[in-house]
């Protein structure tokens, strides 16, 4: 079949041709944002789940809808080893300047920009950011050098500017689990203050499953301030639609048996569905795509995942971390008790606790319950067995 018309789009955050199964979540989030813009109470939203379940894609869909409704989306990706001030200050500056270009006159944006100028004093403490501002700071506004106080002042000023413009500011932060807990606490506290004042500023964030515990430890009231939305694999109906609908939009066909085979192979994970769909289309000589085509495509899809989706994470690991994950893989998909993993390695639990902790910090593992350990990457156990057939290999 013509590769130029292949509708499938595997990629980091690349929008799929059919956002199957996520429409109710998107609508629920947009209802909350409309309420916040109108000054009505609504919680901020946090999407959480494993790699490849479509968190970034859903954030992108929310951003498009926010911008279509003339709200201001401030988009941030939180990498490892960057401070929250370094991430948020430049993005908020750009957002406020966009807000300032709107036709409605007012002093709110200038006030917020002065708050941001004061907030920039934090660079004395967090030396990984610089920000250029034309306005002088307002004495006493977001300039104490204390992140908790200054970020609250800044978020309130941004909310007041948005209310003046009769809009809402939506902070959209991906990979939120990489924000240090004390900085996460400051962000939660700032959003709480804005929420109490009914200001139209909110957060739509995304992260790995450990984010729930991090936010709960950062602030005990986080569970009341945020709606935590779990994203997992698609159910069979939605997963089948994610494959069938894009094919049919191209005036082609795929057999029921082929769709079933893809859903079973991928276990309904959105990223894997795109990879299988892409390769099944490419190997098919003509419509309809058949189960035999899927059988032929399977090896190519796995090879592509091994070379990119899995490998990019594997290559960041130390030899000790690789051995730990290989021991987990020998036990199956998981989750597994920490003691069972240590037994597999023939060592004491305490001796591998630092390795486990470093893998959690790198976003490779999470603890779904006390003493349990699970992969954050679906099907990673199978990859580890392919890439390290020998359990002692490093």
Automatic annotation (TrEMBL):
It comes from the Bacteria. It holds the Pfam family AAA_16. SUPFAM superfamilies: P-loop containing nucleoside triphosphate hydrolases. InterPro entries: AAA_16 (IPR041664), P-loop_NTPase (IPR027417). Residues 18-204 form the Orc1-like AAA ATPase domain. Residues 1-21 are annotated as: Disordered. This is AAA family ATPase. It comes from Sphingomonas mollis.
């Amino acid at each position: 079949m013509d590769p130029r018309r292949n509708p499938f789009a595997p990629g980091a955050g690349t929008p799929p041709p059919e956002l199957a199964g996520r429409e109710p979540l998107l609508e629920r989030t947009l209802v909350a944002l409309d309420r916040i813009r109108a000054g009505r109470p609504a919680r901020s939203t946090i999407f959480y789940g494993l790699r490849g379940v479509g968190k970034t894609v859903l954030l992108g869909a929310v951003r498009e809808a926010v911008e279509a409704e003339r709200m201001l989306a401030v988009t941030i990706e939180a990498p490892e080893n960057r401070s929250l001030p370094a991430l948020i200050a430049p993005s908020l500056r750009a957002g406020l300047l966009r807000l300032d270009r709107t036709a409605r006159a007012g002093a709110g944006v200038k006030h917020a920009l002065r708050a941001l100028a004061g907030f920039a004093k934090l660079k004395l403490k967090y030396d990984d950011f610089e920000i250029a501002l034309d306005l002088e700071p307002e004495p006493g506004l977001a300039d104490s050098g204390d992140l908790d106080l200054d970020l609250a002042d800044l978020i309130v000023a941004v909310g007041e500017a948005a209310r003046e413009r009769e809009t809402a500011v939506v902070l959209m932060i991906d990979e939120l689990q990489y924000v240090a807990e004390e900085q996460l606490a400051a962000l939660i506290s700032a959003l709480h203050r804005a929420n109490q004042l009914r200001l139209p500023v909110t957060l739509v964030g995304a992260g790995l499953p450990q984010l729930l515990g991090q936010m709960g430890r950062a602030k005990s009231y986080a569970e009341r301030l945020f709606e935590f939305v779990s994203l997992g694999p698609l159910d069979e109906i939605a997963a089948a639609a994610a494959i069938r609908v894009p094919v049919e939009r191209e005036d082609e066909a795929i057999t029921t048996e082929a769709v079933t085979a893809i859903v079973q192979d991928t276990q309904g994970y959105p990223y894997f569905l795109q990879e299988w769909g892409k390769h099944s289309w490419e190997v098919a000589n003509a419509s309809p795509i058949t189960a035999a085509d899927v059988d032929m495509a399977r090896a190519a899809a796995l090879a592509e995942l091994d070379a990119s989706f899995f490998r990019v994470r594997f290559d960041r690991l130390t030899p000790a971390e690789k051995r730990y994950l290989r021991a987990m893989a020998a036990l199956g998909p998981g989750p597994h008790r920490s003691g069972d993993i240590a037994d597999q390695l023939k060592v004491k639990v305490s001796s591998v606790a630092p390795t486990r902790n470093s893998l959690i910090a790198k976003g490779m593992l999470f603890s779904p319950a006390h003493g349990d350990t699970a992969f954050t990457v679906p099907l990673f156990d199978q990859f580890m067995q392919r890439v390290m057939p020998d359990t002692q290999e490093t």
